[in-house]
């Protein structure tokens, strides 16, 4: 559930599977992924640590209205 007033009532769904995390947006919902317009179906990336001397890749950031979120791994848990 997203806060009322800052987002549409139903933005879509997020499926978590062994293959990855997929965001399915409802028709007409406008979202940004890392500041760019999002397609209606997108596989979200978690953050990855960089090799020594390399920059880490941050997790994809999703913005819908005033709400922004990203995937976070804590041990074996995904939030």
| Low-pLDDT segments | none
Question: What is the assembly state of the chains in this entry?
Answer: single chain
As a percent range, the share of strand residues is 35-45%
Number of helices: 0
Helix content: under 10%
Mean pLDDT: 87
Tell me about the largest β-sheet: 4 strands, antiparallel
Helix-and-strand structural type: mainly beta
Produce the secondary structure layout:
Blueprint: E1 12-17, E2 20-25, E3 32-33, E4 36-37, E5 41-44, E6 61-64, E7 67-70, E8 73-74, E9 77-78
Antiparallel strand pairs: 1-2, 2-5, 3-4, 3-6, 6-7, 8-9
Write up this protein.
With 79 residues, the protein is mainly β. 0% of the residues lie in helices and 41% in strands. It has strands spanning 12-17, 20-25, 32-33, 36-37, 41-44, 61-64, 67-70, 73-74, 77-78. It has a four-stranded antiparallel β-sheet with strand order 4-3-6-7, with no helix packed on it. Strands 1-2-5 form a three-stranded antiparallel β-sheet, with no helix packed on it. Strands 8-9 form a two-stranded antiparallel sheet. Strand 3 (32-33) and strand 4 (36-37) form a beta hairpin. It starts with 11 loop residues before the first strand and ends with a strand.
């Amino acid at each position: 559930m997203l806060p009322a007033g800052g987002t549409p009532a139903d933005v879509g769904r997020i499926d978590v599977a062994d293959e990855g995390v997929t965001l399915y947006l409802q028709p007409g919902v406008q979202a940004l992924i890392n500041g760019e317009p999002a397609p209606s179906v997108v596989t979200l990336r978690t953050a990855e640590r960089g090799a020594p001397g390399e920059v880490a890749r941050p997790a994809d950031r999703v913005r819908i209205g005033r709400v922004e979120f990203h995937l976070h791994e804590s041990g074996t848990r995904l939030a």
